[in-house]
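This part of the workshop introduces the protein records we will be handling. A learned vocabulary of local backbone shapes supplies the integers on the structure line. Getting from the letters to the tokens is the skill we practise here. As an example, a complete record with its sequence and its structure tokens follows.
=====
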Amino acid sequence: MVRFLASFLIAAIALPAIADAQTPPAAIAPAADPSLTARANELISVIAGSGDFAGYFSPAFHAALPKAKWDAVVASMTGQMGKPLAIDGLKPVTPFSAYLRIRFERGVVNAQIAVDPAPPHQVAGLLFTGTEVAGDTLEKLVADVRALPGKTGLGIYELGKGAPKLVSGIDPNAAAPLGSAFKLWVLGELAREVGAAERHWADVVPVGPASLPSGITQSWPAGSPATVQTLATLMISISDNTATDTLVTLEGPKLDEFVARTGAPGLAPVVTTRQMFALKTPANADLAAQWATELAPTARRRLIESNAARLATTTVDPMMFAGKPAAIDTLEWFASPAQTAGMLDWLRADGGATALSLLAVNPGIDPTTRGKFDYVGFKGGSEPGVLTLNYLVKRKDGRWLAVVGAWHRGDAGVEEARFVQLMTRALVLVSDGALPD
């Protein structure tokens, strides 16, 4: 439900074989093997539908991404960018992997490619990481975000002295489901406690009861010791749910006080991921109904506490989030783009260097877009029907911005790659130059 891995969302196609291509290029890049150059050039016809799809990709690639899914990815990409025309740039990372710039009718798509070193040198990994739309403007971007089915929210804010200043947005004050992005507030309260000398990043605590993935700590031995900073790093960078629940429990009532004090009172009471999963389980439909009608944070907190044992022992099925959206209008963590931007601004101004460094572990965007900024911090969230992408960026000229996007619909899933492309456009548009008043 709250898994959010950038390798999943920023990639239209992501396979283990691409790993070498994700290493930043060395100062002196190696020469591309002729097979890499040839396969890169053949990609144009494969995207256009006239190439040899079956022979172009490796068997492992086909297993991970059948042609029907490939066709869906290509349809989404060409719908926005038009026909593929040529490879405008190839920057080798190794002799058999490279960064690509693919020119389309309406702009450029950045990508990463890796080919098998052994003949016939089939493509084993491919990522479409970001788009650069020719003649793009914030007005065009806003129109494209508005056109998405369901409900959307967007907030682009300039940060500095005083409250965040809205640059452009769509319903920036409307609350939306966050998925894992609620973990920004968990990090914020932790940073506040460290700043107030109530806790230290090096404090060691036992890992709490296992939640569902994403993450890794759910597989660790019960009670494994871990530093607070380790748990926070896992919570933000790979959206580790068990690490998150350990920190939420550690913070206790102070977390509810923090979300209220920082301008997002609707987040309280901040429940653990395990409790939210249990509320969404059909066996607890009566509790879910009470949650939906008891809107006051104190009433909801009493509901959780009086049923703590029941929620803790509820069996949750990992597949419950593999299908259609499940109660995303009631059983979720909610905040508006404006409130999320405010939290990012708090972390910038008051969270301290460690919190900012944790946000930057996983920048959530492709390397080309990342390189346009001095700093990129990121946290997103997702479940079926819900997607939110939240960036804290520092431009090369020293100006800070929060770029927050949310998309949800209760009738179907959302197209993650499509929304990532839109948010990448937003980042590119605000990366330099004048900002609207």
Q: What stands out?
A: The mean pLDDT is 91. The two ends are 38 Å apart (CA to CA).
